[in-house]
Specification:
Elements (H helix, E strand, L loop, with lengths): L1 H26 L10 E8 L6 H7 L2 H4 L2 E8 L2 H9 L5 E4 L1 H8 L5 E10 L4 E5 L14 E4 L4 H12 L8 E4 L5 H6 L5 E4 L3 H9 L3 E4 L7 E8 H9 L3 H15 L7 H11 L3 H4 L21 E2 L3
C-alpha cells in the first residue's frame, strides 16, 4: 500500500512539473501557433518612399499577423502595378499617376491603403552645360522622364507652374534607372525623377548639375493596390486586409524611428542600392532657392471595400 501511494505521489509531482514548464514556456511566448502563414507576394518600387515595407518586414510585423510575405522589387511603381494586374504579384505599391492612366482601360483594381506622402521626392535636375539656370531656360531643351509615371505628371505640373507649353520642350521617355546616365551622356538636358535616381544623377555629375525648384508643386502619395477579387476574397477570410491595416498603423507610429538604427539604415541602402550616407539624412544637397520640406512624412488612409 505504501509503495502504491509513493508511486502516485511521484506521478503527480512529475505531471505537475511538466505542467509548470508548459505554463512557463507559454508565458514567455515560446509556444508558437501552428497555423500556416498566409503567402502573399508584394510588388514594391525600389525607391525611398515605399522602403518602409522592408522595414516592416525586418521588424516582423507581417509574420506577427500570420503573413508569409515575399517582396519583389521593381524599377517603378508603374511596373509594380502592371505586375499586379498581370497576377505576377498579389499587391503593389504605386503612386496615383499609373492608377489614373490605367483606370481609363479597366476598373478591376482598388486602393485599400495610402501609407506615405512627400512634397519633395520627385526632382527636376538640369545640366549646367546646356545653359540651364532657371525654369525658363528649359524652352527648346530635351527633358527625360518615365512616361505614364509620377515623373511625367510632375514634369507637366512643373511646366504649367512656370508657364511653359509642352510644345516648347522635347519630352523623352526614359526608364528611371537609365536617367542619370542619360543626363551625364547629354542624351537629355534635364531629367524629372524620384529618389534614389535623382541622387544617383548628382553622384555622377555633382557640380555639373543644377536642381530647379519643384517642391510644393505636387503632394505625392504611395498606395497599396490589389485586384478587387483578391481584396474581396481576403476580406471574406478576415485575414489580409485587417492585418495590413494593423501593420500600417504600427509602421506609422514607428516611422520617425526608422532611420535611427544602423541596421535599418543598412536595409535602406541595400534595397535602394545607394550609399549608406545618403540614407542618414532627408535633405537634398543641390543648390536651390528656398528651403525644402522634409522629404517624407507618414499618414494612414484606409478605405473600405
Amino acid at each position: 500500500m505504501n509503495k502504491r501511494i509513493l508511486i502516485a505521489i511521484i506521478a503527480v509531482l512529475m505531471l505537475g512539473g511538466v505542467f509548470a514548464v508548459y505554463c512557463l514556456l507559454l508565458q514567455k511566448g515560446i509556444r508558437h501557433d501552428t497555423k500556416p502563414l498566409k503567402k502573399i507576394t508584394l510588388g514594391v518600387e525600389t525607391s525611398l518612399l515605399p522602403v518602409s515595407v522592408w522595414v516592416a518586414e525586418n521588424r516582423g510585423y507581417f509574420k506577427e499577423k500570420g503573413i508569409d510575405l515575399t517582396i519583389k522589387g521593381f524599377d517603378s511603381g508603374k511596373l509594380s502595378f502592371l505586375a499586379m494586374l498581370n497576377s505576377e504579384v498579389d499587391i503593389s505599391t504605386v503612386a496615383p499617376t499609373p492608377i489614373i492612366f490605367k483606370s481609363f482601360e479597366r476598373q478591376d483594381f482598388c486602393i485599400f491603403a495610402t501609407f506615405v506622402y512627400s512634397y519633395d521626392d520627385v526632382k527636376v535636375i538640369a545640366c549646367k552645360d546646356s545653359g540651364i539656370n532657371n525654369a525658363q531656360d528649359l524652352k527648346g531643351k530635351r527633358i527625360g522622364t518615365p512616361f505614364g509615371t509620377t515623373g511625367q505628371f510632375v514634369m507637366d505640373a512643373f511646366l504649367i507652374h512656370n508657364r511653359i507649353l509642352n510644345s516648347e520642350v522635347d519630352m523623352i521617355d526614359i526608364a528611371p534607372s537609365n536617367l542619370p546616365a542619360a543626363l551625364k551622356n547629354k542624351q537629355v538636358d534635364a531629367i524629372v525623377i524620384w529618389e534614389p535616381h535623382a541622387y544617383n544623377a548628382w553622384q555622377l555629375m555633382q557640380d555639373e548639375t543644377i536642381r530647379l525648384q519643384s517642391f510644393d508643386i505636387y503632394k505625392e502619395t504611395f498606395n497599396f493596390m490589389a485586384k478587387k477579387d483578391f481584396a474581396a476574397n481576403n476580406k471574406k477570410r478576415t485575414l489580409d486586409l485587417e492585418n495590413y491595416k494593423d501593420n500600417l498603423e504600427k509602421l506609422a507610429q514607428d516611422r520617425t524611428k526608422e532611420l535611427n538604427t544602423a541596421n535599418e539604415q543598412l536595409i535602406h541602402s541595400e534595397r535602394l542600392i545607394v550609399m549608406k550616407a545618403k540614407v542618414q539624412y532627408l535633405q537634398w544637397p543641390f543648390p536651390q532657392t528656398g528651403a525644402p520640406k522634409a522629404v517624407e512624412s507618414c499618414e494612414l488612409v484606409v478605405s473600405g471595400l
